[in-house]
Amino acid sequence: MTPKYRERIALYPGTFDPFTIGHMSIIERGLELFDRIIIAVGINDSKRSYRPTAERVEQIKNIMADEPRVEVTSYDGLTVDVAKDFGAHFILRGVRTVADYEYERNLAYANRSISGIETVLLYTLPELQYISSTMVRDLDRCGYDISRFVPKSGPTEHSGTNTHY
Is 137 a residue of the active site? Predict the structure, then answer.
């Protein structure tokens, strides 16, 4: 009797404000490890979002439209609860810095403790390490072209700038 195969589903949570080429890299590399990835755009009341959640979800759906193994949703609440809702046994996260590692390590311990869900950390590629959503937002807010920092998803209307995110 052969063991039953369990689909490897990972939840990739974040605010994705905006979704960058660094995020895209984590997904592309994560698809080498997982059968499916659920991108979960979190609603975080402690962060002031640059763009509405629904707009970020739609933008990511457009970017990922040709990848059937990726689903995009939004959520409010605990990450482990939404992971369970989707049958995900893994949380996928990207790490750029030592500070990111310390933060993610502690979250991983807590999440595993309360749910049994494992966290998989992927290190950002060196050439993308400096890219953060905060940096991209600041550049956009000041009128700089951010197209090299965000995946192509078609032009969108946004606060007087011609961005592609």
Answer: no
How confident is the model over 57-99, as pLDDT tens digits? 999 999 999 999 999 999 999 999 999 999 999 999 999 999 9
Q: One of 8, 29, 96, 112 is an active-site residue; which one?
A: 96
Catalytic residue at 148? no
Q: Which residue in 23, 51, 56, 89 is the catalytic one?
A: 23
**Sequential DSSP letters for 65-118:** TT-TTEEEEEE-S-HHHHHHHTT--EEEEEE-SHHHHHHHHHHHHHHHHHH--E
| Spatial separation of the C-alpha atoms in residues 16 and 58, rounded to whole Å | 12
Is 96 designated active site?
yes
Q: Say what the pTM is.
A: 0.88
23 noted as active-site residue: yes
Q: How far is CA 5 from CA 16, 67, 75, 89, in A?
A: 32, 22, 28, 13
